[in-house]
Specification:
six-stranded antiparallel sheet, single chain, 221 residues, alpha+beta
């Protein structure tokens, strides 16, 4: 199964969980699928190949980062909450997608405690966006925002690629630095050229080929 199909399963889980939290949307969710239906669909994703790239090609030949997300061997709607790393990544993915469309705004760097709607309305810069994902509305690990030089030593951050989440950081200060994030095989950033947006393969390739970015990940992810 392709990476896109696996990520689609995760999106379905998020939609179903939202339906459970929002009674008004539960009827709409149940008209198309049920809890057992989600479990059956996710079971079919267990043969997904974690070595595929964004476009399904070989990572070595394409130069695109091979996504780090690999579903556990036993994975259904109920088990998401039992896998701390995966459930944390799912929260980050939901937070990232909810904030899409926010402007790039260096004036709102301290966005760690912002809600998704505040990010959309006020915007934030690259490290402010990552801080938001690591803050109370994401993983809950950070209580303050960190600029690019401070990310390597920020709480709950470990060097290297993660299993579900990787933070790609250029630690230079100010406009010389930049940070973007991979969550379950999808890529996000806040940049001057696109605001808060989901990145396409060409953007990912350009950053990786520059050799300026170091991988870090939240502990357990």
């Amino acid at each position: 199964m392709s990476l896109e199909a696996v990520v689609g399963r995760v999106d379905q889980i998020l939609q179903y969980q939202q339906a459970l939290l929002d009674p008004e949307s539960l009827a709409a969710a149940s008209s198309t699928s049920t809890s057992s239906g989600f479990a059956a669909q996710l079971a079919s994703a267990q043969d997904a190949q974690p070595g595929s790239t964004l476009d399904g090609s070989d990572a070595t030949s394409s130069g695109v980062l091979s996504p780090t997300a690999a579903l556990p061997t036993s994975f259904d709607v109920a088990s998401v909450g039992g896998n701390t790393g995966l459930s944390g990544a799912a929260r980050m993915l939901a937070a990232a997608k909810s904030a899409l469309g926010g402007a790039y705004n260096q004036g709102n760097h301290d966005a760690v405690s912002d809600s998704a709607s505040q990010i959309q309305q006020q915007g934030t810069d690259c490290s402010g966006f990552v801080s938001y994902l690591m803050g109370p509305n994401g993983t809950g690990d950070w209580s303050q925002s960190y600029a690019t030089p401070g990310i390597p030593t920020a709480p709950s951050i470990e060097p290297g690629k993660g299993s579900y989440v990787t933070i790609w950081n250029n630690p230079n200060p100010g406009n010389a630095g930049h940070v973007w994030i991979e969550i379950l095989g999808q890529y996000f950033e806040s940049s001057g050229s696109g605001g808060v947006h989901q990145m396409d393969p060409s953007e990912v390739n350009e950053y990786l080929n520059s050799g300026q970015y170091q991988p870090f990940h939240p502990a357990g992810m």
